[in-house]
Amino acid sequence: MIQTPYLLFLGDAPDQLAAKVAQGIKDWRPDNAVGQLRMEGCKADVGLADMTLAEAKSKGAKTLVIGVANRGGVISKAWKEVLLAALEMGYDIASGLHNLLEDEADLVEKAEERGCALHDVRIPSVAYPIASGVKRSGKRVLAVGTDCSVGKMYTALALDEAMRKRGMKSTFRATGQTGILITGEGVPLDAVVADFMAGAVEYLTPDNDADHWDVIEGQGSLFHVSYSGVTMALVHGGQPDALIVCHEPTRPHMRGLPDYAVPEMADIRDVALTLARVANPGCQVVGIAVNTQHLSDAEATAYLKKVEAEMGLPAVDPFRHGADRLAQALEAL
Amino acid sequence: MIQTPYLLFLGDAPDQLAAKVAQGIKDWRPDNAVGQLRMEGCKADVGLADMTLAEAKSKGAKTLVIGVANRGGVISKAWKEVLLAALEMGYDIASGLHNLLEDEADLVEKAEERGCALHDVRIPSVAYPIASGVKRSGKRVLAVGTDCSVGKMYTALALDEAMRKRGMKSTFRATGQTGILITGEGVPLDAVVADFMAGAVEYLTPDNDADHWDVIEGQGSLFHVSYSGVTMALVHGGQPDALIVCHEPTRPHMRGLPDYAVPEMADIRDVALTLARVANPGCQVVGIAVNTQHLSDAEATAYLKKVEAEMGLPAVDPFRHGADRLAQALEAL
């Protein structure tokens, strides 16, 4: 678990998109961050107060979170100076970079000297068990996609927020690096060893109050041949009571797979439900989340109406319209 | 790739079952082994000539294969003496033990000194790619089970043998430690990191002659919640042209999961075929392999006849009746 609150390190981000991890923290867990630290030439701004390490420290910041992608996969000399200074001041550091903090000898040495933690959220920090399949108390909802990167994390975060607003008990459960940095905990499922994937999901979503919902971030797609095994582990390890089908209607083909057509939502619904019911016979598909970012307002409204009629389920774009109708569907379950 | 031929180390096996890896090598790749090495008190015998390290060396043995499970997960002092002596004489060593050879400092030191290889087949030795999904030449058949440990490896090995006997081009592709030790190569799929599982299966079954078949060893089951993600990666990474459904009809419940009923063969057929056709739209289920070891001859015959009528597919026990009818079904495809 990563200690909050954070100071968000934006470094020398070349544009706003490069800081999407920091933006996600600001959007979804603003209370987790006291401010942002930008270096000279930084072109991103997530709308938090600019602070030095010392200023943020005085506001209580415990962890410097690298909220930006680095260029060329290398931690630059300029970044390194800031990171070493942070450790010197007693900050922990958390990172989802491909190149690991723990592979940087000077950071490791300084962290040991100062008793600080280095969190590389791309790699597991826990020895997960093999899944037992034992029925757990509490309820779980999982976002399943027709493809990768169709908005499953966004849907889960928006749903979690909408459920809390309705007074429901809900916890977003992160299964990828961005989600882990946003919430401070989770399982980097794509980096878990095969035999322990489903066990890692069970570990992430333990017994809970009967009326509590875990909102599990989905990964990949059962129809995406590169990552479907990861999705499968979520469907079985998560024991979901409810599924939300997530879709992006303008894809010419599956992400990264030019020869593969995006499946119909009904295909994902049917196969996901068949497999989910192995672990939880009562599982239901309760709604559809469509990422309509490439449609006009009128197109989006028409498309959602059509999907809703065809599938007989509430269909929303959580970004455009909020996720309250999905939360309502879960409440009604 | 493990160098052949082998000398099979049976150690102080307490019974025949403990030597099942050695037995598998003797049964399926007898040409891979020059003899067996048994220590005092060994209760197993796979029917090969007993040899000392020196005798086997003179017959050309290159690798000492640990063909026996060790007690308590510890490499004993008595075993260690044999292993060190083998390295001293220039043997490589191959092992599927949970406790790794590479974690034994004295073995590592001696292997380095003598320029010998230590093969721990439980862990991957290759940095597998992420699956590309690109269609490969050649044909592939995958064994899919209603449960774990229903005879998928045996079925694949028997099928490979039957296909060769018919003059077909066939290669058994191992995906677990026993299969890897039997054939000298393969992918320990349950130990691969999630993101690379399907890519590891693609790596294992590359482009080949148009009339060549890879016979892929199955793992787990799409309906076994602990390991279904591994199975999923085989279904998509393997791009199978054909599936064989494997079943054991006397199981009271899924292996290790007392609350989970074993699915119907038709359920596995339908969901496996739906998912396999994502990667290979022409995929067909061509036959059923039933492990009838707990049935009498009469019961087995009656059961297979019933299955054959219900499923409309050849149904055999490859151990009792051979796998030729399955090979025939593939040849007819």
TrEMBL record, chains A, B:
InterPro entries: DgcN-like, DgcN-like_C, DgcN-like_N, P-loop_NTPase
Gene3D superfamilies the UniProt entry points to: NAD(P)-binding Rossmann-like Domain (3.40.50.720), P-loop containing nucleotide triphosphate hydrolases (3.40.50.300)
Entries under Pfam families matching the protein: DUF1611 (PF07755), DUF1611_N (PF17396)
D-glutamate N-acetyltransferase-like C-terminal domain boundaries: 130-326
Domain of life, source organism: Bacteria
Domain D-glutamate N-acetyltransferase-like N-terminal positions: 39-124
NCBIfam families: DgcN
The protein, known as: DUF1611 domain-containing protein
Species in which this protein is naturally found: Sulfitobacter albidus
